[in-house]
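Submission sheet (multi-component)
Chains listed below:
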Amino acid sequence: MRRRSGLGEFWHLLKQNRLALTGLAIFLLFFCVALIGLVQTTGTNPTFDPAMVRLQEKLLPPLSRPNLETLRPEEVPKLGIYLFGTDDLGRDVFARMLQGAWVSLTVGFVAVGISVIIGIFIGGIAGYFGQHNVRVDQVLATLVLLLGGGLLAMGARSWGVGLLIIGHAYIFFSAWSKKVWRGRSMPKSVRILYRDAISIDTLIMRFVDIMLCFPSFFLILTVVALLPASMYNIMIVIGLTSWMGATRFVRAEFLSLREQDFVTAARALGVNHWRIIFRHMIPNAIAPVLVSATIGIATAILTEAGLSFLGFGVPPPHATWGGILSDGKRFIFDAPWLTFAPGFAILIVVLSFNLFGEGLRDILNPKLRERY
Amino acid sequence: MLSFVARSIIQKIITLFFVSIVSFLIIHIAPGKPSQVDPLNPKFTPEIVERFRKEFHLDKPLYAQYVYFYRDLFTGKTVSWKDNQSVLGKIWVRFLNSLPLFIVGTIITWTLSFPIGIRSAIFRGGFYDRSATFFSYLLISIPGFFFAYILIIFVVTHFHVPVIGLKTFGIGGASWPNLIMDRVWHLLLPSVLGATGGIAVLSRYVRSQMLEVEGQDYVRTARAKGVPEEQVHYKHALRNALLPFVTMFGLILPGLIGGSVIIESIFSWPGMGRMAYEAILARDYPIILTVNFISAVLVLAGTFISDLLYLVVDPRIRL
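Outcome: structure written.
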């Protein structure tokens, strides 16, 4: 058999997985639509104006023609037809859907981008430096500093400042005492402070456990409801609450990669830690992260739609798919297109990401390659 | 065994302590104050705000508030800021409302996903398997609220039954078969919706477990010595594939309180999820924090139970 390059083999395997290929095609189409939507619905004179109110044209079914006699020339939709009908204010649902596509796309990608970056960073530290230990005195100093900062923030000024001073003083003291103790044996009472308390890996994974205890949608809803409504807050909050999966994947990969020969070889050559991590380990560890990121985008889009549906999304004049559906729920029997157009759009986009992600998992899994 | 139990209980208590701190900080450091809920309300004079702040210790520093809150929670004295009722009492009432949804949803999930998963594993690669795979992706991808409206439109136009709420408004005088049918109709849609995601995920999981076991040597041996096909699938393969699912009984525990915010608010179901949603809207911190704390306890208890079950069921695991 002819040997293929990595990308060529990837494409060959993808072509055999029809569902994944369909997913990729729909995703590319969605990307183009969102980009066109961004360009065509913004600016002072957009081609499709999602905010144009035509009260005489309200709740028209899809594919109906505008009544040209009652509309001023600039109010006539550019397509000459309401492709997805109009809503209860006579706004063109097609234009609103175009505008909402960009929101879904950016929320999905930025939120997952944030979570993947945090995941690679924290998981990388846990996997690569995890066997190192934190000493008792370091834990104590951190606790004192945190407590001091916390008390200062909460209003107990004198206590807070005192603890901060003690913490910093200790850091200087330990830097100085390192020189003093060199070559001499320490007294027993001091040696307890220098015992290993907890490994970095345990510390990080316990933190992941803590984060996994929160019910995710409820936590996101709480934080988004407390913060001022904006698209960026939603992205950041979704990203900050969903990095645990990526962290676990990266850590697991790093733990196994660290023991491999090429890493040992690189270390023997004197390559520094950061180069080993970024040039040698991350490219080998990225496959499972990519798969979980693709599926994570689907989840993030669903979460954003759910938030918009509950009314915590991007603030009103801007259209989102969840928001269109939420506005349309009062008319589900009279104007079902207001429910079906955004609903099917979300369904198809999320489905395409899920299918592509699952296909990617099959392709990148060397165990399953034999079957094809 | 005993040391494992003791160690994991201590570990979980420490985790819980940090969860309580983190959730308390998240909610109190976020901008906005609960004493500013409705500045336009004429009854909301500065004196009342001051009394409110004093009553609920809001004038104290944050660490004192933390201690007060969790002391009240453990002695069962926490009250909702909105209506001064006991938080635990309110949660208990709503929990009883959510319980039937949870039970029916779980039963639907487990009874449907096993046959589907087993059948697609046995006929893997066939038409049935491929369509089951596609449908499970479809069910994972469909937004719950959209699916809810599709089902509402379908049920209301074809069966002419009302589906919103716990029961039909003003049905009090009807005969009891009608009352029961009414409750069943109202229960059915939200629990089916709650089960959809579960069916999709669980049936895929059953399928992959079955496939793994069917590839084992002992299954080939059974087949080679002439055991009938039925017996190979259901006696040799299925029994071994069931092992990981025993542990899943522990993992469904958090679902008890999670409820679904979206589905309960669509169906006006007065359950846990909807109460949490209303509490978020009203900035009723005691309820939000208590729900959060209880669900963290349930998550930790669930993982603990599933670890224990694994230990009991799988003799290969020794500690």
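Remark: The CA atoms of residues 64 and 82 of chain A lie 6 Å apart.
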